Amino acid sequence: MVYDVVFIGGGIVGLATGYKLISARPDLKIALVEKESQLAKHQTANNSGVIHSGLYYKPGSLKAINCIKGYHELVSFCQEEKIPYEITGKVVVATRDSQRPLLDMLLERGLQNGLTGTRKITLDELKEYEPYCTGVAALHVPQTGIVDYLQVALAFGRKIVQQGGGIFLNHKVLKINQKDSINYIETSKRTFQSKLVVNCAGLYSDQVAQMNDESINDVKIIPFRGEYFKLKKDREYLVKNLIYPVPDPNFPFLGVHFTRMKKGGVEAGPNAVLAFKREGYKKTDINFAELAETLAWPGFQKVAGKYWKTGLGELYRSFSKSAFTKALQELIPEIQESDLVAGGAGVRAQACDRTGGLLDDFAIRESEFAINVLNAPSPAATSSLSIGGTVAEMVLKRF
Fold first, then answer.
1. Judgement on whether residues 122 and 102 belong to the same structural domain of the protein
2. Could you point out which of 47, 76, 143, 392 has its C-alpha 20 to 30 Å from the C-alpha of 303?
3. How many domains in the chain?
4. Residue 385 near residue 14 (C-beta atoms within 8 A)
5. Closest by Cα among 42, 91, 50, 92 to 71
6. What is the pLDDT at residue 6?
7. Residues 47, 270: Cα–Cα separation, whole Å
8. Same domain for 120 and 206
């Protein structure tokens, strides 16, 4: 059987794209292959569960456009499918006077991105939203929410199967060859044939891209592990909803923050440290071949040279609970080291180019036989239906 489209990667972006495509064209023969024994095991299942509003992203960027469109589509989908979610709002807090201009810039971005109701609040108002939080200035963003993205992704998967698509688990892609305008996708179990490949392989998206188009050699996925603590049950009252710091504008991470989770509990974190394995969720997880590949990448060497101070600080926090606590105390002084218990960790697939640029925006590359989603970090989960719609439109132009 020759499929019209084979999707590689069963995370939320691949599933959303498959769902969007089969909804638009139920006559197309589509299959989705995933190397794990379950869907959405990696970035999707290990993220913070935040429904992002679109506050941080440069107006007009793919992140801004897709996040805001995806936000509304996601909320509608959750309502239709009865997936629990909450629009909680969040506060973004400047803890030092030097951060005030960045806070003003965030407010301006938010308003340009259509976040009506986002505003500066007084410190008295901050206490109303988050009684234990302190700072010198703050924003309130009413649109932010929380959801369990694993539930969302699994619902996309169910929709694909209901509409006649195939989902194949435990199929690791080993090789892709083209012959007579057909892709031959060799997995650990069989070979699939398809007219088009859509690569949504997340942490391995660069390697899958190389399999289908050797000219894509200017981007490498650098894995960054984000480690979380959780607040002890009897200290969860310290956080009502979501509390964020003002992010470092030069570093594509949002800094340690507090998140009330839809599945229960309050997370504190994450930091952002280089993972020594693409799926390295623990400090002890090392894949020497993958680590050597990262260290040898010219772009990573430039990133390390540029951000070594920030990186050392993140690494120090990774090994020092007291340093992690100190970072959290900037937002909630009452937090003590004893309030924190070990939480989970996620690994972010951060694309890095040869010149040392950490790609800030989503990156999608088309070639003759494939569409490669090469960079889809946060807010990809919030944006998944919008990204999926964009990629589905690219596919439909070929059919």
1. yes
2. 47
3. 3
4. no
5. 50
6. 98
7. 10
8. no
